[in-house]
Amino acid sequence: MKKLILLVAITLFAFNVNAQDDSSGNALSEGSWVIEVNTGSWATGSTAFSLASEDGNTMWSAGAEAGYFVKENLAIKAGLGYQDFGEDFSAFSYKIGAKYYIAGDFPVGVDYTGVSYKDADENPSYVGLQGGYAWFVADNVSIEPTLRYNLSMNSDFYDDAFQFVIGFAIHL
Predict the structure, then answer these.
(1) In Å, what is the CA distance from 69 to each residue of 76, 101, 130?
(2) From residue 95, how far is each of 13, 54, 136 by CA, in Å?
(3) Average pLDDT over residues 140-149
(4) Are 156 and 134 contacting, i.e. CB atoms less than 8 angstroms apart?
(5) Whole-model pTM?
């Protein structure tokens, strides 16, 4: 709980820090690229980094996303991820979607995530909606605290999920 409170405090601090110039101008222009990694949950078909352990079983995920700005502030993105649930059970995830930066500082996105479980007959998928804040710590590097909602397309696997994630993006 203390870590959560500290994370919220840091996020609120980030919202109150304002640079004197808008350093996000070139980073979000048409024709540029973004490479992004996120923290997240292994439970929702993740392209994020996560680590959890319960009853001696360690679960982890790793992945990344990349996008191309087809218009200023609008990127089309794709991502890949791998999850290991321990005890010879794993999954591969893929994500496609779009991300738009409102006023260059507030990214909102929509995407589709599919999951392929090892040796499974049926696999879950999600439609994700997200919104956050892009704090540009350099002209081409941003930290993006984000609220995300994953709508399950197959409730036989998982229910909908609400997440708080932190993204780290390099804009090229």
Answers:
(1) 6, 11, 18
(2) 31, 27, 24
(3) 93
(4) no
(5) 0.75
